[in-house]
Design goal:
alpha+beta; Arc Repressor Mutant, subunit A; 3-stranded antiparallel sheet; 3 helices
């Protein structure tokens, strides 16, 4: 479990970060967060399953519709926007879907 930085306004809520067995990458269960919670770039990347640098590239080239906030030089992602992005990436499993 990690603790949140009190300066980001989210210090009252500290959901667990899960470790999947021998995998080095940890993931965040977004269902543990309130919808208004602001994720750091690292937390959002972990929840989606990509590196923070990948999110930076996506922001730069507008490749995916994943809304973010700029607060000074800090980047934050709303939990609800991150969940909506993941929902839009869901493929129904029918033949001819995205491979």
């Amino acid at each position: 479990m990690t603790s949140q930085n009190s300066s980001d306004g989210n210090s009252a809520f500290n959901p667990p970060i899960h470790d999947e067995g021998s995998a080095v990458q940890k993931f965040i269960d977004l269902d543990q967060y309130p919808p208004h919670y602001l994720l750091t770039e690292g937390q959002a990347a972990s929840a989606i399953g990509v590196k923070p640098s990948t999110l930076a590239v996506w922001r730069c080239n507008g490749r995916y519709d994943l809304p973010y906030l700029k607060i000074g030089r800090n980047v934050r992602y709303k939990v609800r926007d991150t969940l909506a992005y993941l929902d839009r990436q869901t493929v129904n499993g029918k033949e001819g879907g995205i491979a």
